[in-house]
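Crash report, auto-generated. Payload:
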Amino acid sequence: MIIRFALAKGRVAKKAIELLVALGYIFEDYSEKSRKLIFTDTTGTVEFFLVKSPDVPIYVEKGAADIGIVGKDVLMEHPAQVYEMLNLNIGRCKMCVAGFKDRPILYGKKLVVGTKYPVIAKEYFHTKGQSVDIIKLNGSVELAPLIGLSDCIVDIVESGNTLKENGLNVLEEICDISSRLIVNQVSLKTKHELIDPIIKEFKTQL
Amino acid sequence: MLFNYTIDGFENIQHQDYFSLQKIINKLMSLYRSYGYHQISTPTFETYDLYVHEDSIPSDDLFKLVNHQGKVLVLKPDATLPITRMAAMNHPNSDEIIKYSYQTNIYRNFSSPEMVKKEITQIGIEYFGNNSPECDGEVIALAILSLLEYGIKDVHIDLGHVGFINYLFDELALSPKAKETLFRYIENKNIGDIAAYLDQLKLSTDKKEIILKLPTLYGKPKTVLKDMKELCINEKMEWVVEQISEIYHHLEVMELSKYVIFDLGFTNQMNYYTDINFKGYISNCGEPVISGGRYNNLSEKFGIPRPACGFAIDLLKVIDYMEQENLLPQDDQSRNVIFYNCTDKAAAYQVAEKFRANGSIAEVFLIKGTWEDHVHSLRKNQLYKNAKLYLLSEGNLYTENNNQLLPLDSVDTESEVQ
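Recovered output after restart:
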């Protein structure tokens, strides 16, 4: 039996692979430039593949991967039937509402929000009783308020540099984001002799 | 011109799969029958009112339609509720034991954009009027046997009891919001977020410790039972431990305990279970194929308080798995096709009858063009892949073998017993 990891491409994957290596797994054929899709460790008990982050919960929910490592933002935006077993505390950042400092959010008036996270944005403003128009964007969200497409944006903020360079500020913090280790609900039960120790090892690494 | 598309979430069942499906249904039905269950069926349409107050199925997931009187109907979204009503209507005496089995399609209007099946073929049982661990044991045993029946080996039953968490939370006086949040985290085994959330709550440290242990209560039954005993803070929780260990003992007696693992992380958010609940898994099949449990409060809604326990199997999911593993029952009945020239019609139909009398399939066609054309087109047709071809011409019978016609004295009358 083999344990399969689905990792979200990007900076989180790098840290996740470092964690796996720190646990003693050796991936000989892995390098950042490699075009291979699946990497198996030398003992043949663990393999991982890299996919776009919103796909990680899908792979894990359907059982194509046993374990996934992906940001909380993705899990909130694309809820999946998986066990969310560990907060790995890597890739930490905040989900924020950002806009112009001199133009704070006027609650009660309809707000136009540009975001890559329509579900999270809608949920957040909904619980505040604020009516919003959500514009789903796929990148460079900071542009939206600058050219008048939206009043504010909802996005993840790590250092805040991109915001600062574009004259934007964090107006409200929605929640903390960090990478989570998720597990397929069936795998945890059917492969528990293999998965339990891996989770324990991850825990001790934290 | 009609367009040949299907609606998302609805599928045709191909003939090979349908054959397997029927075989499996028949076999499972006779299994349930041998345990005393009576097969029943309820209507495809239900009134919307029946489900609107039922939290277990979100209203958005119902297929609704309006009848000629303006009444809102739904396509049956679950089997248990109508069967519970049927039991309540036909058996008004609460003490009666009623064992029903069913096979039905249910419909859920899932809004998810992915290709999720919205028509689900279920088979299952409902056992009314028995509140004993033996009843729970029998229901779980039949769930396991249903999968074993067809040679599936990697069967896992995940058994929990919603009472354990509920009786603990009853004592903690949590707000409904806090309860719901904790339930969600516990179901997701999200220990990290539970810890963070508990920090905001005014609870004693030892109670917090217990809540933090809840998501870890899964795995080998004996170990989990031991851990559960240590967490009990009231008699009701102890009662749960006793119940679940008796059920486990029952399964040991049935020699099925090796298929069972415990998971006390199930809650009754979004379902009507009041005591045990369980899910059935097959290795390498990422989603549960069986779901069941005890629902002692449902029948009361129809005026007859009566305990009940049951399960449903998602048949098409099981068949998908069996197809991958080559476990599907094959259609091995022999198929014969007889061609005849118009003068031999009577003889051709006699030959066909002879095949049918012996339990084979026989079809008869009049030759219109050349014999070779008929053979050629039939050989291309997947539906006649293994068919044997015969030709009746001027009173003589021939059989086809590698495009050669061989004369036959009479048809092979070897009997095929199904």
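Post-recovery validation: The two ends of chain A are 26 Å apart (CA to CA).
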